[in-house]
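Researcher: Please translate sequence to structure tokens.
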Amino acid sequence: MSVTVRWAPSPTGRIHLGNARPALLNWFFARRHGGRYVLRMDDTDLARSTRESADGIEADLAWFGIAPDLLVRQSERTALYDAARDRLIASGRLYPCYETEEELDRKRARARLLGKPPIYDRAALDLSAEDRARLEAEGRVPHWRFRLDGRPVHFDDLIKGPQTVNTASMSDPVLIRADGSYLYTLPSVVDDIDLGITHVIRGEDHVSNTGTQIEIFEALGGNVPIFGHHNLLTDAQGQGFSKRLGSQSISDFRAEGYEPLAIAIVATLTGTGMPVEPYADLDAIAEKLDFSMISHGSARFDPVELDTLNARLLHAMPYAEAAPRLSALGLEGEAMWLLLRENLAKFSDIAEWSKLLTGPVEPVVSDEDRDFLALAKALLPLEPWDETTWSQWTDILKNTTGRKGKALFLPLRMALTGRHDGPELRSLLVLLGRTACLDRLP
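Model: Translation complete:
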């Protein structure tokens, strides 16, 4: 089977980690199977959808390294939905309803009092043409519901295995609002048919919608895709990510200096059988991730795990990959990068760490170490230097002063770098050179 998947965000704000999970899982599936990846903007909510948000979503995907094979916007495809609407009306599967929201609330409340499920009673199906004409003459404008078969709908979920949704326990869903605008369900099914979507990969919160959607696929004569519902990513407190609640967006993580691959790994491999560890790129993940590895339990995001992973990716980053980014910061040099990368938490940290080589550095010298450092300066070996120079120098100082361990090394580090931490001094010494070391030693 030729695979075609789609990711269908609503451009009503910037996407967060929870949104990134299906975006990337669909990409992995398409890459693993040599398929197509469709980006579908679900922008039928004209009041909340903005082009700025849509552009931001495209920018976030590009930051991850995802290039969709096709981009469509639902706002530009209304004619397709109108045609499907007319077909469903003609076949008797889409029918007009005239109840107000207040009347529906009262019906639901009454059903609960009687111990019945609060589902729509299909009263509108009993209306005659005269009844409908009278209601419309009173100024009532109908919304439109899809008449469900009311049966067990079975499907084999790509992730969860065999599933059954009984539409008999559900209200006939509203597909068209009173103002004529479409809710998510009908345009989504129409697009999946038109675009030849073979696999719908999305969060497990959509499982209950699947029975309804399969009935609409069948009512329109379309091929029913294979569904796969993955576990949802939650924040560190176990709460779901939400635009409405202001969850940290992907653009926020980008602005904070995280690597896109770190975000991608954490967003997708958390809650799977694959370790959250460095991978070469998205294709390396796609080659290894089988959807049978996705857990049926929750997937909780750990900020500490993200920080650790981000640092590990930087520590292993080859110079060829780092070089263009270093150049943008006015830096260059493979030896410099290989020396300093082990100290980075974010790539931007390199600007500060590079000052160990280029200055300015404010040496830190305590009174009790001043004589020791003066001696160290006098005993500093002549050039040329190599990786053995550090041990030669410190061996002489150890034998001369009796100092060893922290008492020997820390004063030298503080004088040369002004820091307690940092790269290995044996390598740093070579890059600094004798003149810079003499300048920094008191």
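Researcher: Any highlights?
Model: The two ends are 73 Å apart (CA to CA).
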